[in-house]
Design a protein that fits this description.
It is built from three helices and three strands. It is an alpha+beta fold and 85 residues long. The relative contact order is 0.16.
């Protein structure tokens, strides 16, 4: 996965082996970019650390943060750019 700014938008691009499967750009909002960057660093436990990250950076409650993380994980898994067992 690659996160880049293109034409003022933060986008997720496939990279490496997943680029043959994921051939589209996914536009990320600021919070999704924060989460994707943390996932790319491999420094988090999913979903707990990602929920905590949202709680630290945004004025959201736990349920909303957890729902947002679950939604992003579902999108990334659906695009075959995130493999969580």
């Amino acid at each position: 996965m690659l996160v880049r700014e293109i034409a003022g938008e933060i986008v997720l691009l496939g990279g490496g082996k997943e680029s043959t499967i994921f051939s589209k750009m996914l536009v990320l909002n600021e919070s999704a970019a924060l989460l994707v960057n943390r996932l790319m660093e491999h420094t988090c436990s999913i979903p707990d650390d990602l929920v905590d990250l949202l709680l630290q950076h945004y004025a959201v409650d736990y349920e909303e943060a957890h729902t947002d993380v679950d939604e992003l994980i579902g999108i990334l898994k659906g695009l075959n750019v995130l493999d969580i067992r």
